[in-house]
Predict the 3D structure of the following.
Amino acid sequence: MSDKILIFGHRNPDTDTICSAIVKQILNEKSGNNDVKAVRLGNVNKETEYVLNYIGIEAPELIEEVSEGQEVIMVDHNEFDQSVGGIDNAKIIEVIDHHRISNFETAEPLYYTARPYGCTSTILYGEFKEKNINIDKKEATLMASAIISDTLLLKSPTTTEYDRKALTELADIAGININEYGLDMLKAGTDLDDFTEEELVNLDSKKFEKDGVKCVIAQVNTVSIDDVLKREKKLKEAMQNEINKNDLDVCILAITDILNSNSELIVLGERSDVIEKSHHLENDRVFLEGVVSRKKQLLPLVESNI
Ligand code: MG
Ligand code: MG
Ligand code: MG
């Protein structure tokens, strides 16, 4: 067991999860609490790698499980399904998150900050402001990157006025041009050549369960949906393997065009009707104009059809 409080985001970490964990550690340290350590629950993706290289820092240490009674702070998630092994027996000290609250229960009181913003780092930015703590260039770059990632350069419908304001101010401190830096960063995450189809399906994948229906929604970002669809056959095989392995009722892969803000879905499984009820599938696929957000667009759609 670590004697420090471990800070982490969700499995299959994205840029917000990694950056917010690092920034939360710094925020606590700057507030006089040094007993904290950012860690991660999975491989760093290429977009996040771009950010860490840009700043010149290492990724947090990888952990897979926590022992009973370990003190933890959860950022960018709260659902135990998406968290570290052993989370049910950990001592959750604090949660900072911008998702719905689901399957969450603790034995003891805790700090819980939930805001319906586009990004966890936007909440953290607010805490710096509130506590009057200075934000340096590195911290600003981390938070700005997280906001750019989660809101797809402020184009996702999850974007709020708080995200816009935070990003403008953070980019200023970081000395970055939002569109130039942001597009380079997002594009770095669309380089999918090195990944196997199995890895692509797991890169940014979230598990949900409603009324006993087990569902995975995975997402990959691209600048060309057609390019990704060249691998359709093998992607479907990988998705089918996930279904068999995890006993899923439905597996959805959203291939999201970050330049034009659209997504093509591949939908497989016994309950593919969670999409089919609203959108006609052809060869297990459908193109959804203007859909880029799993949280605000895909998840509500799927849940309404369960
Ligand atoms: Mg996230
Ligand atoms: Mg997030
Ligand atoms: Mg995301």
